[in-house]
Amino acid sequence: MLAKTLLLPALASALIMSTACSAVLADPASYVVDPKHTYASFEIDHLGLSTARGTFDRTSGNIVLDAAAGSGYIEIAIETASIDTGLAKRDEHLRAKEFFNVDQYPTMRFVATSLQFDGDRLVSANGELTMLGKTLPVLLRITHFACGQHPIHDRPVCGADAETSIRRSQWGMTTYVPTIGDKVTIRIAVEAFRLP
User: Fold this and answer.
1) Domain spanning 2-194: which CATH class is it, in words?
2) Measured distance CA(148)–CA(17) in Å, rounded
3) 3-class secondary-structure state, position 76
4) Rg of the chain over CA atoms, in angstroms?
5) Domain boundaries, given as residue ranges, for the chain
6) Helix, strand, or coil here: 105?
7) Is residue 102 classed exposed, middle or buried when 0-12, 13-18 and 19+ CB atoms within 10 A define those classes?
8) Mean pLDDT score, 82-100
């Protein structure tokens, strides 16, 4: 009985979100990224012993979604100086010239103009990542996507979890490769409000 009691609200919530998602994506729609709920994180091998992790805490961006046409646009800007690995001295080192060189390159940017949908669900985005002044193609895999009416702000909102893997050396960040891994897994958790 308890399981049934817990399951019914969850099913109802899922149905409401699914219906809301279809309604939100009914027409081409523009969204602005909510910087309070959008974060980029990364994982990289450390000495072959463990996985080092960190986040970038300041983001901005704009998104256009048109599920009916199977098209759209994504632009996510990440402030490189907002890197946070939990250790201030390491963060200072990562901001330096041999890594993110934040004084010369204060922003990383992902831009996608080719989006793939499965029905109303966004599943991937082909685009380009600009880092350290170099732009290269990147494919974002969308591992979670949902839209609905925000329960607090009472506005249409969409959210997604996206991930990709890159070789940092391709962008010219070669410091300590291969002692510190070349392959970097990047994840972006995004929430964005629909514009009127």
Assistant:
1) mainly beta
2) 5
3) strand
4) 19
5) 2-194
6) coil
7) middle
8) 97
The end-to-end CA distance of the chain, in Å, is: 43
How far is residue 83 from each of residues 24, 57, 100, 138, measured CA to CA in Å?
33, 7, 9, 21
103 — phi, psi (to 5°)? -65, -40
Q: Residue 60 has which token pair?
A: 């901005």
What pLDDT, on a 0 to 100 scale, did the predictor assign at position 26? 55
Average pLDDT over residues 166-179: 97
The tokens for 193 are 């409000």
Q: Band of the pLDDT at 144, cuts 50, 70, 90?
A: very high
DSSP at 37: G
Q: Residue range 157-161: average pLDDT?
A: 97
How, if at all, do strands 156-167 and 134-149 pair?
A: antiparallel
pLDDT for the residue 27: 74
- The whole model's pTM is what? 0.84
